[in-house]
């Protein structure tokens, strides 16, 4: 047989406190919660006081340390709302400005984007691109973006990326040794390519400036490198701007 | 004394601002209101008045003391100005360092004192005032003194010997018990504030044992409805206990308002101004504001009906401002030609016309209602097409509305939240009753669809590109069928959600939580759009305005804030309550906001300029439910004392009291045409009251307004139309559908 349960003394004290404060109905868990709070609070204060006492090079903790500890805790955790005169003053100032007029036809009326929670709060990490080693490979540093590789207009043959592209766009990209022609697909195709590029992991929405590339549409050999670099760098600028989830 | 509350010394403007701010920002300084307590020559020190009629020697003493004080703090310019204005000769200053003090100004000067003249720091005032009491005795001791100045100046800190406080109080008690019956009720009002202030003074001046003895002896005499306050007071025995308790600090510095008839007041004044009772007179002058009216003294029941709040009753001029309680005119909507449109009643049966029809519900009278605000008093968003469609639906439903009355009670449909484990903290319905949202203690918000139509999210951006934008049902196509479900969970808060409100256009949901933020959620994407940070303390309630765009929130920091969805900071701050704001409601015309608070008052605020235009006292517990009548004229309020009180907004009076509930009332709602008032309470019942009858035959004339002689009929039993009990589910929310079906919600609590 179990012994009759006796409530520990602390709990009895807590029950008495609740009764004195006029609280007559409460769940039994409330006593546990109150006791835990009390214990945690007192422990924190005493620990703080010990720190202050050692800081003051005293051997024992005395009442002043406790008072200081309580005061610091009050200012930190148990803050109280601002006093009434302060509130009245602030209210007076705020209430003087007239209500702002409402602009018509503005769609959802939300604060500026900085103050909203609507921005994406994540970035996609780019996969480690191995620059493929096909012949005539242009050693263009397309590291940061990688999206470049998916462009039909790029003469590189990073094979996987091209595959993803060529399904949509029949871009004749031919490599002839060190010389290759780039055929710039018409803009419409590029845009559709854009939308399908989500399939490529490292790709994102990129602005392709066909005109820019067009201008560099020269039959070149190594020249292409630099040209493409030039084109690339320009392109990359676009990409860097638009595309923050492929870093 | 009351007339010169404007400041310690007019010459010192900084202090002036502080004390002015410490009193409520309206009405206090009106010396031209002849009914105010006339400044008696024996007034305590805060009368740093620059009236040159300072004939009484005591006033002169006060002036001198003030000069001393200024001089001590090296405010030489102020000294000069004061001396010039008061016409004092050069050498009349005495080297006295006593602190001049007075109720709120005592705190102010204490603050100034501590700062050594830096009067611009408002925040220090509170801590300063807490030490003002301790300061004064030491200062008084330190200065060389003339006993008269001493006594006058140490007014707030100490009215004579603490051991004599009991004697003073008993003396007053004996006197009041000996007056005529008709005056006794009125004068008994003095007991409670006097008791509290004397007790607090003793505590502040570290006379702990005297304070305890004083408390034990007299606390039992107080009215029963002050029991909760007294319990809080009983645990306050040291000065340090008061730090951080903003409510009590506000109580100390604000004046408790009493309304007493002139005859009773004369009696009291005469008695207290006799020599030996001067101390009590001083205390009364400092802490009480006696609003005198001419007329018959009020009876006990009348007084009991109006008292109970933490700051006494409301001054008459607090309820004098004009309130535009009428409704805004409904805009005339050109109905697009639509075969499904049902015409309004008067056009039934007529062949459909080819020209657009106007709605006939709102524009019956072209004349402006004199009590209605103008359309552009506050900027309101214009109606979009979807809003117009909503309005058309509204009008169609309105034609099918059931007329309610004492013999035609509404059916009640109760939505019980199961398995909420006491975690349901807030509920709201949309106006067309299609969605229900619940706020929970686990900081989630859940939205359910009440109709068979499921909740869907809008498609992602990629998918949206694929749809045909030109098709007719594009609004259906943008919804993603894959996400259809009965309910959606919105996570984002970091504390229990205490307030919920749908926007009138059903696009947004607001939720306010213990974490101090108010969040705006989109009901199209079911994501959080904005978090409005401003209150740094739990926000107890929030509500969208009936026209959308604005919303109001109230919380633990004792202010209510008005926001607009496109401003990240509040537009208005409604500050004045002495304790937490527990309930916030918009008036149907969106021009006014009512706030109920733990200080047991209800205040009505003007959105245009943030002023408090009405104060309603009478509840004996924190207010948890407010409801405006649909015609905008009346306000109903429910509190923890289980009573529903009805208020006439235009006149600022209590017009009815509905007794019946036995526990806190958490929800109140008028039916769509205002005939029935439904109230839901923690005692697991919903009660229906006859609102038309309650507001009939109101005698509201100037006399009633002036004197507070309200005649409440004790007709709660007649007005009660029905009591409906749930099994064990407290009723948290009530909502009348557009056709006058009553919906109720609560969490089943086995």
From TrEMBL, chain B:
GO cellular component term, pick one:
transcription factor TFIID complex
Please, which domain of life does this record's source organism belong to? Answer: Eukaryota
Q: Where in the cell is it found?
A: Nucleus
A GO molecular function for this record?
A: RNA polymerase II general transcription initiation factor activity
Spell out the residue ranges that the record assigns to WD repeats: 417-458, 490-525, 532-573, 574-615, 616-649, 658-690
Protein name per Swiss-Prot or TrEMBL = Transcription initiation factor TFIID subunit 5
GO biological process, alphabetically ordered = transcription initiation at RNA polymerase II promoter
Compositionally biased intervals (Low complexity): 38-57
Annotated region described as Disordered, given as residue ranges: 1-58, 86-114, 335-383
Is the Repeat keyword given for this protein?
yes
Which regions are flagged for Polar residues bias? Answer: 22-32
Q: Where is the signal peptide?
A: none
Alphabetical keyword list: Nucleus, Repeat, Transcription, Transcription regulation, WD repeat
**Which residue windows does the record flag with biased composition (Acidic residues)?**
335-346
Location of the TFIID subunit TAF5 NTD2 domain: 160-288
